[in-house]
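Batch manifest, entry 17 of 40.
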Amino acid sequence: MPAYWIGEHAITDEALFADYLRQAVPLIERFGGRYLTRAGSHDVLEGDWRPNRVAVIAFPDMAALQAFYRSPEYQPLLALRRQAATDVITAIDGA
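Output type: C-alpha cells
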C-alpha cells in the first residue's frame, strides 16, 4: 500500500531550501519516492493556512517512507531543511 509524505513549508531562506532540495530529491528517489505536486501549485480555498510550499511525495509503502526519513543520509539534510523553513511533515498510509 502506498504511503504519502505531505510537507507544509514556510520557507525563510530560499537559497538554503534550494540547496536542501538539490540534495534531498535524489535521495527521495533512491527510496522509491516520487513527487506528486509541484512548487506553487496549491491554492487555499478555506481557512487561514499560509505555507510557501506544499509537497506531496508518494512512497511505495510506509516502511520506505520511514526508511528514507530515518536514514543516516537524510539526517544532515533534515537539519538543513529546518534551518531553511518551518515545516509540518505528515506521513499517511494510502488506500
